[in-house]
Amino acid sequence: MMINDTSLQNVNLTQLREAPIHLNTKIQPHGVLIVLKEPELSILQVSSNVYTHFGVTESDLLEGTLFDLLDPFQVEQIQTGLTAETLDYLNPTKIWVRKRGDDYAVFDAVFHRTSEGLLVLELEPTFAHENIPFLSFYHLARTSINRLESTTNLRDFCQIIVQEVRKITGFDRVMLYKFDHDGHGSVIGEEKLSHLEPYLGLHYPESDIPKPARKLFASNWIRLIPDTHAEPVDVVPAINPITESPANLTNSVLRGASKCHIEYLHNMGVGASMTISLIKDGQLWGLIACHHQTPKYVSYELRKACEFLGRVIFSEISAHEETQDYDYRMKLTNIQSKLVEYMSQSENFVDGLVQHQQNLLDLANAQGAAVYFGGKYTLIGETPKEEDLNYLVQWLQANVNEDVFYTNSLPQHYPDAEKYKNVASGLLAIPISKRNYVLWFRPEVIQTVNWGGDPNNAFEYNQAEGDLRPRKSFELWKQTVRLTSLPWQLVEVKAALELRKGIVNIVLRQADELALLARDLELSNAELKKFAYVASHDLQEPLNQVANYVQLLEMRYSNELDEDATEFINYAVEGVSLMQTLIDDVLAYSKVDVQAVEFELTDANTSLERALTHLRQRTAETKAIITHDDLPTVMADRTQLMQLFQNLVGNAIKFHSDKTPKIHIGTTRLEDEWLFSVYDNGIGIDPKFSERIFVIFQRLHTRDEYPGTGMGLAICKKIIECHRGRIWVESKLGEGATFYFTLPVGGQRSERRGRKVQNNIFGRGQ
Length: 766
Ligand code: BLA
Fold this sequence. Notes:
Blueprint: H1 13-17, E1 26-27, E2 32-37, E3 42-47, H2 50-54, H3 58-61, H4 72-82, E4 93-98, E5 104-113, E6 119-125, H5 134-149, H6 154-169, E7 173-179, E8 185-192, E9 203-204, H7 211-219, E10 222-225, E11 233-236, H8 259-267, E12 272-280, E13 283-292, H9 300-345, H10 349-354, H11 360-363, E14 368-373, E15 376-381, H12 386-399, E16 405-407, H13 410-413, H14 421-424, E17 426-431, E18 437-442, E19 447-452, E20 459-462, E21 467-470, E22 476-481, H15 490-557, H16 563-591, E23 600-603, H17 604-614, H18 616-622, E24 625-628, E25 633-636, H19 638-654, E26 662-669, E27 673-680, H20 712-722, E28 727-731, E29 737-744, H21 757-763
Parallel strand pairs: 24-26
Antiparallel strand pairs: 1-11, 2-3, 2-6, 3-11, 4-5, 5-6, 7-8, 7-13, 8-9, 10-12, 12-13, 14-15, 14-18, 16-17, 17-18, 19-22, 20-21, 23-25, 26-27, 27-29, 28-29
Helix pairs in contact: 5-6, 5-9, 6-9, 9-15, 15-16, 17-19, 19-20
Bound molecules: biliverdine IX alpha.
């Protein structure tokens, strides 16, 4: 649209484009409009052309009633008709108006009531030769429908419709106009006089039929402008005395066309036009648009017949479209149920979506797809790079709240997408939760669109009058459309939405299962704790009793016992003390519990020093040389960290070789964790046992060789697991050993504890 004067930028074009057209106070002059008040049928307003049609003046009629215009028997007939539930039986009514003397004029009369409760009567002169009985229309329609039934493709369908309508009405040009999803439209069928320039295949911008006009066409199914050059006439008085506002002409058949549209028709060389609405699912699907170069009157009956034809024929188109949709929908439903099946069979639903022959791509007929789940991408086909997807996902998170987002021109919404237009000019996205997405991509398809006139200058602002003027030229204007993919079909979008439901169900089910598992674990942890408690208190007591009595036996009867008996008593005492240690260790093990971990900033040097203090005696006995790096401060439970060092260094001392024990505690910073190592030059461990040593009560040596319960490393492992780290050993028999463990940088934050399992699923890795 061209606006040359920059000071006019502020003019609200949208408001001008969308001006209410039903409040037009003028009507087309080929008929007469009368606004009546029921029940007395007093005349409140009339169109100012009454003299031309009836030979009486406006003032002759105003303040009178319909009885002043028509013979009483006609008015009585009308009054009866007005009491019926619907006015359909009354419309149209033939009415004879007596012009001076015995001269009568015949009119087709139609009535409707406005939303304010007024009755509007519209009269159009009857043309006897166009008086076609309804039945013959039925036959006309029948023939058309028979032709349609043998046709399978939409193009031929449309062609038949325009041919049939043209045959019945005799317009110079009849077109089938279909709206796009964005309000633009195109001519998909045309039948015309051969010398007229064709409009078939041309696109027209949304502004040619602005929103209020489209809205009106959705309720009024037929619209006739028999003479585009006729001067419209006023309705007088302009203000209705009852409503105190201009007459509401929303449903009037005579309503004057907007000035802009009349000029549009003139620029197209149109002398008369008729439009029939095609409605599907309550939406304006398209129009049958008829043009005549010269004025052309079409009787109410013929119009009605055309409307009827439009409805019947169109229901055929809808059915046809639906069958086509149906086949495709069935195919997609099939794919979708397969995917859901695969997903529920796989441990990880993402594998189910991508690892089979029939996969995500088929569901939306896409060339690429990505599943973003738990912070990870799984890609199939042609997709943007992961780093680009990261930004795209962030953009979606910030801008899309709906269950589905789709566009066939992503760069229009998100300009950064231009750089990967070759794979993702089209995007269909479904959020699985706030942070997880399934995305489908389609590449750019460069298309040429033929417009009827330059759509960028579809109209211009007329400064003098403060209104809009349509373009003058409708000449072919070719547009190369870039950064656009083939559009997503509604069935594909629906299939994606269905899949979303499937995924959400599966994820929720897995979350439920995990929650159950977690509860079971919690229960068994609680059991273990209970056992530990029982062990420490209840078992300890009888054990002490055994120890005490055995010792008492030894003291009191030492003289009477032989050597063997003393030895047996010693064994019993040893057994009891071993059992006490075991109980203590089990207790220590059971106390290491993620719920009980007290995370705090802990200087690992301090924890190590404390551990070494506890090991002082053994260090001195073995003359062990213990060194360490400067250790970092970590987020950890300081008692547990101390215990960990104590167990590892203690082991290093315990399993020394003939050489002087040398032990070194080292640390290295990895990407997002600290790696600790505890090196020793001791007897080493056969690599085949490197897993077993961490298992509770597993020992590689007899108790005689090395004392202890075999719980130390199991406790270490549990401590590390509670800190979300890893622990392992690298060693060869006879060549010393290095135990490694990791702790996350920043630690396992304490607020994560006790988080709901479901959150963890959705939020993993974020
Ligand atoms: C109405 N515009 C229409 C109608 C059609 C078109 C079919 C309805 C039918 C009618 O009342 O005649 C457009 N006609 C077309 C197109 C083709 C065609 C696209 O034959 C293609 C071959 N129109 C403008 C601008 C404005 C505008 C700039 O171009 C206003 C800002 C308005 N068009 C406009 C209005 C109507 C209309 C207000 C409703 C007319 C009325 O019923 O009052």
